[in-house]
TrEMBL record:
Its EC number is 2.4.1.-. GO terms for molecular function: galactosyltransferase activity. This is Beta-1,4-galactosyltransferase. It is an enzyme of class 2 (transferase). Belongs to the glycosyltransferase 7 family. Catalyses the transfer of galactose onto proteins or lipids. The chain crosses the membrane at residues 12-33. It comes from Brachionus calyciflorus. It is a single-pass type II membrane protein. It is found in: Membrane. GO terms for biological process: carbohydrate metabolic process. The keyword Transferase applies. CDD domains: b4GalT (cd00899).
Amino acid sequence: MIKKSLLFLGNFSFSKIILAFLSLNLFIFLLYVNGIESNSLNISLKYFLFSNETIVPNSNNSKENLDNSTFPTVSKNSNLSKEYGIYNKTLCPMIPAKLHGRIPVKYFNGTFIELENSLSNLSIEKGGLWSPKECKPRYKVALIIPYRNRENILKIFLKNLHPFLQKQQIEYGIYLIEPLQNLTFNRGLLMNIGFIESLKKTNQKWECFMFHDVDLIPEDERIIYSCPEQPRHLSAFVTKFNTIVSGEALFGGVSALTKDQMKKVNGYSNLYFGWGGEDDDFRYRILQNNFKITRYPLEIGRYLMIRHTSDQKINSERFNLLKKTVERMKTDGLNSIEYKLNDMIIGKLFTKVIVSYDENYLLKKIY
Ligand code: NGS
């Protein structure tokens, strides 16, 4: 009798173990079938199945650390702590402590190699990418710069902007978008291409975009290259030939939008070939979508425009186009763009995207 019951008990626990083992396998299999394969799940499964290291829950609930709380804190010296080490860092401050006020623009007239050498201590990664090492960056920012035939100005831009951005402790990338020589320059279209290509190239990394003219250099460290809740016009006061250009109705020069805001307004119009109007069109789109444009005050929002001769022809159609901005904005922009990517050059200080487009085709497509 006792022998029989022991046998029964033995059989019972053995079948229970088998059952538990099968259920665990089934559970893991179902998770994969359902495509539930998030990072955190991977990390915890990795731990559960293969590790005897303990995950210490993040007990620091200060405001700064809340955004980190989804990441497990791993005991020091473990391999995983090295692998996932970045998650242990605290967020970089919203406004870095070392920012002072006005800064002089540095001029540069050496070669590109000399420029690269002069910036070699900044640890800029290929393609003009950078991220702070001492903290986890709050903002991932792409600078989109329509560009053609401005080598000397570009050197001054890079000489000033790389150290300026690094002081802000943001993660950033610098993208120049250049049309083939025979094409009419189209600033809005090039901004749209920069938005699309910079996201494609980085697997959708960027969250915030600075649409930036190459001839504008910030003159104050308190101009933060991040995206606040509303679109921001950064170059609110531009010193151009010794006079200050400013106005509530302007939105060109340097402006900041989040990825979502850019998508919501369908980007820039693709139809402004030549100088003028595309920034006014963009501003109408933003206001029409119930966003408010913010600006820094006169003491902060200061840029210097580097002198150059203009080689762009003025777009005589711009006022006609502006009359129909609102009517057209849902069908003319990111969702209707067509271009050819001719080349992508990964430089030491920037990524250059070389493109071509068919002016007549794009204009006919809408009208
Ligand atoms: C407006 C242009 C804008 C231009 C702004 C500032 O008149 O595209 O001047 O120009 N709009 C039209 O022509 C419709 S600036 O002072 O930078 O030369 O951005």
